[in-house]
Amino acid sequence: MAFTMHSHSGQFCPGHAKDQLEAIIQHAISQGYKTIGLTEHMPRYEQSDLYPEELNEQDLFTTMVTRHEAYLTEASRLQAAYASQIHILIAFEAEFIREAYADPVRSLFADPRVDYFIGSVHHVHGIPIDYVKKMYLAAVQKSTRQTEESLWEDYYDLQYKMLTALEPKVVGHFDLIRLMNETPGHDPRTWSKVWDKAVRNLKVAREQDGWLECNTAALRKGLDEPYPARPIAEEWIKMGGKFTMSDDSHGIAQVATNYERGLAYLESLGVTEVWTLKRKTHPGITEGVRGEVEEVAVPLTAFRERFSA
Protein backbone atom coordinates (compact mmCIF):
# COMPACT_ATOMS: atom_id res chain seq x y z
CA MET A 1 0.00 0.00 0.00
CA ALA A 2 2.22 2.78 -1.29
CA PHE A 3 1.31 6.39 -0.54
CA THR A 4 2.60 9.91 -0.14
CA MET A 5 1.45 12.53 2.33
CA HIS A 6 3.21 15.43 0.57
CA SER A 7 2.81 16.43 -3.08
CA HIS A 8 2.51 19.48 -5.34
CA SER A 9 1.35 20.28 -8.88
CA GLY A 10 2.25 22.91 -11.42
CA GLN A 11 -1.43 23.69 -11.78
CA PHE A 12 -1.63 25.18 -8.30
CA CYS A 13 2.06 25.91 -7.62
CA PRO A 14 2.94 27.47 -11.00
CA GLY A 15 6.63 28.03 -11.56
CA HIS A 16 7.44 26.02 -8.45
CA ALA A 17 6.14 22.66 -9.73
CA LYS A 18 4.98 21.03 -12.99
CA ASP A 19 1.99 19.20 -14.48
CA GLN A 20 -1.74 19.22 -13.94
CA LEU A 21 -3.08 17.82 -10.68
CA GLU A 22 -5.27 15.20 -12.38
CA ALA A 23 -2.34 13.91 -14.44
CA ILE A 24 -0.28 13.54 -11.25
CA ILE A 25 -3.06 11.53 -9.60
CA GLN A 26 -3.34 9.29 -12.66
CA HIS A 27 0.40 8.67 -12.56
CA ALA A 28 0.28 7.96 -8.82
CA ILE A 29 -2.34 5.30 -9.50
CA SER A 30 -0.11 3.77 -12.16
CA GLN A 31 2.71 3.62 -9.60
CA GLY A 32 0.58 1.56 -7.24
CA TYR A 33 -0.32 4.34 -4.81
CA LYS A 34 -3.44 3.64 -2.77
CA THR A 35 -3.42 6.98 -0.91
CA ILE A 36 -2.19 10.42 -1.92
CA GLY A 37 -2.16 13.53 0.21
CA LEU A 38 -2.53 16.67 -1.91
CA THR A 39 -0.60 19.45 -0.17
CA GLU A 40 -0.34 22.51 -2.39
CA HIS A 41 1.49 25.44 -0.81
CA MET A 42 -0.71 27.83 1.12
CA PRO A 43 -1.01 31.45 -0.10
CA ARG A 44 1.69 33.89 0.84
CA TYR A 45 0.55 37.36 1.80
CA GLU A 46 3.59 39.55 1.23
CA GLN A 47 5.54 40.07 -1.99
CA SER A 48 8.82 39.48 -0.17
CA ASP A 49 7.67 35.96 0.75
CA LEU A 50 7.51 34.76 -2.85
CA TYR A 51 10.13 32.64 -4.58
CA PRO A 52 11.78 34.27 -7.61
CA GLU A 53 9.66 32.32 -10.13
CA GLU A 54 6.50 33.61 -8.44
CA LEU A 55 7.36 37.30 -8.59
CA ASN A 56 5.27 37.90 -11.70
CA GLU A 57 2.08 37.71 -9.63
CA GLN A 58 0.19 40.90 -10.49
CA ASP A 59 -2.14 40.89 -7.52
CA LEU A 60 -0.55 38.67 -4.91
CA PHE A 61 -3.39 38.39 -2.42
CA THR A 62 -6.24 37.97 -4.91
CA THR A 63 -4.34 35.56 -7.15
CA MET A 64 -3.08 33.26 -4.43
CA VAL A 65 -6.27 33.16 -2.40
CA THR A 66 -8.36 32.57 -5.54
CA ARG A 67 -5.96 29.83 -6.61
CA HIS A 68 -6.21 28.12 -3.22
CA GLU A 69 -10.00 28.05 -3.46
CA ALA A 70 -9.76 26.69 -7.00
CA TYR A 71 -7.39 24.01 -5.70
CA LEU A 72 -9.85 22.87 -3.02
CA THR A 73 -12.64 22.75 -5.59
CA GLU A 74 -10.59 20.72 -8.06
CA ALA A 75 -9.21 18.43 -5.36
CA SER A 76 -12.76 17.69 -4.21
CA ARG A 77 -13.80 16.86 -7.77
CA LEU A 78 -10.84 14.52 -8.21
CA GLN A 79 -11.44 12.92 -4.82
CA ALA A 80 -14.88 11.85 -6.05
CA ALA A 81 -13.85 11.01 -9.61
CA TYR A 82 -11.05 8.63 -8.56
CA ALA A 83 -12.56 7.30 -5.31
CA SER A 84 -12.62 3.72 -6.61
CA GLN A 85 -8.93 3.81 -7.54
CA ILE A 86 -7.13 5.90 -4.91
CA HIS A 87 -7.85 7.43 -1.52
CA ILE A 88 -7.32 11.18 -1.92
CA LEU A 89 -6.66 13.32 1.14
CA ILE A 90 -7.02 17.08 0.75
CA ALA A 91 -4.48 19.15 2.63
CA PHE A 92 -2.01 21.99 2.21
CA GLU A 93 1.55 22.81 3.18
CA ALA A 94 1.51 25.52 5.80
CA GLU A 95 4.24 28.14 5.82
CA PHE A 96 5.61 29.64 9.01
CA ILE A 97 7.71 32.46 7.64
CA ARG A 98 6.92 34.49 10.73
CA GLU A 99 4.50 34.21 13.64
CA ALA A 100 1.87 36.27 11.80
CA TYR A 101 1.27 33.24 9.56
CA ALA A 102 -0.37 31.29 12.39
CA ASP A 103 -3.82 32.86 12.01
CA PRO A 104 -4.01 32.39 8.21
CA VAL A 105 -3.04 28.73 8.64
CA ARG A 106 -5.80 28.22 11.20
CA SER A 107 -8.28 29.94 8.91
CA LEU A 108 -7.34 27.74 5.94
CA PHE A 109 -7.55 24.60 8.08
CA ALA A 110 -11.06 25.57 9.21
CA ASP A 111 -12.36 24.68 5.74
CA PRO A 112 -14.17 21.34 6.21
CA ARG A 113 -12.75 19.97 2.95
CA VAL A 114 -9.25 19.99 4.43
CA ASP A 115 -8.14 16.81 6.19
CA TYR A 116 -4.76 17.93 7.60
CA PHE A 117 -1.88 20.24 6.90
CA ILE A 118 1.91 19.94 6.87
CA GLY A 119 3.76 22.29 9.20
CA SER A 120 6.88 23.53 7.43
CA VAL A 121 9.62 26.11 7.78
CA HIS A 122 11.28 27.17 4.51
CA HIS A 123 12.38 30.66 5.53
CA VAL A 124 14.57 31.97 8.34
CA HIS A 125 14.72 35.74 8.89
CA GLY A 126 12.32 35.95 5.95
CA ILE A 127 14.83 34.35 3.55
CA PRO A 128 14.37 30.94 1.86
CA ILE A 129 16.99 28.53 3.18
CA ASP A 130 16.35 25.71 0.67
CA TYR A 131 16.24 27.56 -2.66
CA VAL A 132 19.75 28.64 -3.71
CA LYS A 133 23.03 28.88 -1.83
CA LYS A 134 23.15 32.68 -2.20
CA MET A 135 19.90 33.05 -0.26
CA TYR A 136 21.00 30.54 2.37
CA LEU A 137 24.20 32.53 2.93
CA ALA A 138 22.17 35.74 3.17
CA ALA A 139 20.15 34.07 5.94
CA VAL A 140 23.43 33.12 7.66
CA GLN A 141 24.42 36.78 7.69
CA LYS A 142 21.14 37.66 9.40
CA SER A 143 21.50 34.96 12.04
CA THR A 144 22.39 35.67 15.64
CA ARG A 145 26.18 35.24 15.26
CA GLN A 146 26.38 35.18 11.45
CA THR A 147 27.44 31.54 11.40
CA GLU A 148 25.83 28.41 10.05
CA GLU A 149 25.57 27.10 13.58
CA SER A 150 23.57 30.13 14.69
CA LEU A 151 21.36 29.90 11.59
CA TRP A 152 20.52 26.32 12.56
CA GLU A 153 19.68 27.54 16.06
CA ASP A 154 17.39 30.20 14.60
CA TYR A 155 15.77 27.62 12.30
CA TYR A 156 14.90 25.31 15.17
CA ASP A 157 13.65 28.23 17.25
CA LEU A 158 11.27 29.24 14.46
CA GLN A 159 10.23 25.61 14.02
CA TYR A 160 9.48 25.47 17.75
CA LYS A 161 7.19 28.49 17.42
CA MET A 162 5.47 26.80 14.48
CA LEU A 163 4.94 23.58 16.40
CA THR A 164 3.55 25.25 19.49
CA ALA A 165 1.29 27.60 17.51
CA LEU A 166 -0.09 25.14 14.95
CA GLU A 167 0.34 21.56 16.27
CA PRO A 168 0.56 20.05 12.76
CA LYS A 169 -0.21 16.38 12.26
CA VAL A 170 2.70 16.12 9.82
CA VAL A 171 5.96 17.96 10.44
CA GLY A 172 7.50 18.75 7.06
CA HIS A 173 11.16 17.90 6.32
CA PHE A 174 12.20 18.33 9.96
CA ASP A 175 15.86 19.12 9.21
CA LEU A 176 15.49 20.98 5.91
CA ILE A 177 18.14 23.39 7.18
CA ARG A 178 20.89 20.90 6.29
CA LEU A 179 20.22 21.07 2.53
CA MET A 180 22.41 24.10 1.76
CA ASN A 181 24.87 23.68 4.62
CA GLU A 182 28.57 23.82 3.71
CA THR A 183 28.75 20.26 5.01
CA PRO A 184 25.33 18.72 4.19
CA GLY A 185 26.13 15.60 6.23
CA HIS A 186 27.01 17.64 9.30
CA ASP A 187 26.07 15.86 12.54
CA PRO A 188 23.89 18.31 14.53
CA ARG A 189 24.98 16.67 17.78
CA THR A 190 28.35 18.43 17.48
CA TRP A 191 26.58 21.77 17.99
CA SER A 192 25.20 21.47 21.52
CA LYS A 193 22.70 24.34 21.31
CA VAL A 194 21.43 23.18 17.93
CA TRP A 195 21.01 19.63 19.20
CA ASP A 196 19.21 20.76 22.36
CA LYS A 197 16.77 22.80 20.29
CA ALA A 198 16.18 19.97 17.82
CA VAL A 199 15.49 17.49 20.62
CA ARG A 200 13.19 20.02 22.28
CA ASN A 201 11.20 20.25 19.04
CA LEU A 202 11.02 16.48 18.70
CA LYS A 203 9.62 16.26 22.21
CA VAL A 204 6.95 18.84 21.37
CA ALA A 205 5.95 17.01 18.19
CA ARG A 206 5.78 13.73 20.10
CA GLU A 207 3.62 15.26 22.84
CA GLN A 208 1.27 16.53 20.13
CA ASP A 209 1.11 13.06 18.51
CA GLY A 210 2.55 14.55 15.34
CA TRP A 211 4.33 12.54 12.67
CA LEU A 212 7.70 13.15 11.05
CA GLU A 213 7.79 12.44 7.35
CA CYS A 214 10.47 10.30 5.82
CA ASN A 215 10.85 12.73 2.95
CA THR A 216 12.78 11.34 0.00
CA ALA A 217 13.10 14.74 -1.73
CA ALA A 218 16.39 15.09 0.16
CA LEU A 219 17.80 12.21 -1.88
CA ARG A 220 16.90 13.67 -5.28
CA LYS A 221 18.45 16.95 -4.13
CA GLY A 222 21.78 15.25 -3.53
CA LEU A 223 21.75 14.45 0.19
CA ASP A 224 22.81 11.01 1.39
CA GLU A 225 19.79 10.45 3.64
CA PRO A 226 16.13 11.46 3.54
CA TYR A 227 14.76 14.08 5.91
CA PRO A 228 15.28 13.57 8.80
CA ALA A 229 18.92 12.46 8.93
CA ARG A 230 19.92 9.50 11.08
CA PRO A 231 20.75 11.35 14.34
CA ILE A 232 17.31 13.03 14.34
CA ALA A 233 15.55 9.85 13.23
CA GLU A 234 17.19 7.77 15.96
CA GLU A 235 16.22 10.28 18.63
CA TRP A 236 12.64 10.31 17.31
CA ILE A 237 12.48 6.53 17.44
CA LYS A 238 13.70 6.56 21.07
CA MET A 239 10.73 8.78 21.87
CA GLY A 240 8.31 6.35 20.24
CA GLY A 241 7.63 8.80 17.41
CA LYS A 242 5.86 7.75 14.23
CA PHE A 243 6.90 8.28 10.61
CA THR A 244 4.81 8.90 7.55
CA MET A 245 6.12 8.65 3.98
CA SER A 246 6.48 11.47 1.46
CA ASP A 247 8.01 11.89 -1.97
CA ASP A 248 7.39 15.67 -1.79
CA SER A 249 6.87 15.48 -5.54
CA HIS A 250 6.61 18.64 -7.62
CA GLY A 251 5.30 16.93 -10.74
CA ILE A 252 4.89 13.56 -12.42
CA ALA A 253 8.63 12.93 -12.79
CA GLN A 254 9.12 13.02 -9.02
CA VAL A 255 6.26 10.75 -7.93
CA ALA A 256 7.76 7.88 -5.88
CA THR A 257 11.30 9.12 -6.58
CA ASN A 258 13.84 7.31 -4.39
CA TYR A 259 11.18 5.42 -2.47
CA GLU A 260 13.26 2.23 -2.59
CA ARG A 261 16.14 4.06 -0.89
CA GLY A 262 13.76 5.68 1.58
CA LEU A 263 12.29 2.33 2.58
CA ALA A 264 15.75 0.81 2.95
CA TYR A 265 16.73 3.75 5.16
CA LEU A 266 13.75 3.23 7.46
CA GLU A 267 14.45 -0.50 7.65
CA SER A 268 18.07 0.22 8.60
CA LEU A 269 16.70 2.23 11.53
CA GLY A 270 14.56 -0.69 12.66
CA VAL A 271 11.31 0.97 11.55
CA THR A 272 8.67 -1.56 10.57
CA GLU A 273 5.68 0.62 9.70
CA VAL A 274 4.72 4.05 8.44
CA TRP A 275 1.48 5.90 9.07
CA THR A 276 -1.16 7.51 6.91
CA LEU A 277 -4.70 8.80 7.30
CA LYS A 278 -8.00 7.37 6.11
CA ARG A 279 -11.16 9.43 5.73
CA LYS A 280 -14.26 7.87 7.26
CA THR A 281 -16.40 10.00 4.95
CA HIS A 282 -15.02 9.40 1.49
CA PRO A 283 -15.32 11.01 -0.90
CA GLY A 284 -16.47 14.51 0.01
CA ILE A 285 -18.05 15.91 3.14
CA THR A 286 -21.54 15.68 4.57
CA GLU A 287 -23.58 18.81 5.24
CA GLY A 288 -20.51 21.01 5.33
CA VAL A 289 -18.96 19.12 8.24
CA ARG A 290 -15.33 18.01 8.18
CA GLY A 291 -15.05 14.26 7.74
CA GLU A 292 -13.34 12.24 10.42
CA VAL A 293 -9.95 10.75 9.68
CA GLU A 294 -8.39 7.75 11.34
CA GLU A 295 -4.72 6.86 11.65
CA VAL A 296 -3.65 3.77 9.72
CA ALA A 297 -0.39 1.87 10.17
CA VAL A 298 1.10 0.42 6.99
CA PRO A 299 3.79 -2.24 7.43
CA LEU A 300 6.82 -1.58 5.26
CA THR A 301 6.36 -5.08 3.83
CA ALA A 302 2.87 -4.08 2.64
CA PHE A 303 4.20 -0.80 1.28
CA ARG A 304 6.73 -2.73 -0.81
CA GLU A 305 4.09 -5.16 -2.12
CA ARG A 306 2.32 -2.40 -4.02
CA PHE A 307 5.33 -0.30 -4.82
CA SER A 308 7.72 -0.78 -7.71
CA ALA A 309 10.89 1.34 -7.69
TrEMBL record:
NCBIfam families: hisJ_fam
One GO CC term, this protein: cytoplasm
Reaction(s) catalysed (UniProt annotation): L-histidinol phosphate + H2O = L-histidinol + phosphate
GO molecular function, one term: histidinol-phosphatase activity
Keyword annotations: Amino-acid biosynthesis, Histidine biosynthesis, Hydrolase
EC number annotated for this UniProt entry: 3.1.3.15
Family of this protein: Belongs to the PHP hydrolase family. HisK subfamily.
Enzyme class, UniProt record, top EC level: hydrolase
UniProt xrefs under InterPro entries: Histidinol_P_phosphatase_HisJ, PHP_dom, Pol/histidinol_Pase-like
Range of residues in the leader sequence: none
Gene3D superfamilies tied to this protein: Metal-dependent hydrolases
Residue ranges constituting the PHP domain according to the UniProt record: 5-217
Protein name (database record): Histidinol-phosphatase
Biological pathway: Amino-acid biosynthesis; L-histidine biosynthesis; L-histidine from 5-phospho-alpha-D-ribose 1-diphosphate: step 8/9
GO biological processes: L-histidine biosynthetic process
Pfam family, one: PHP
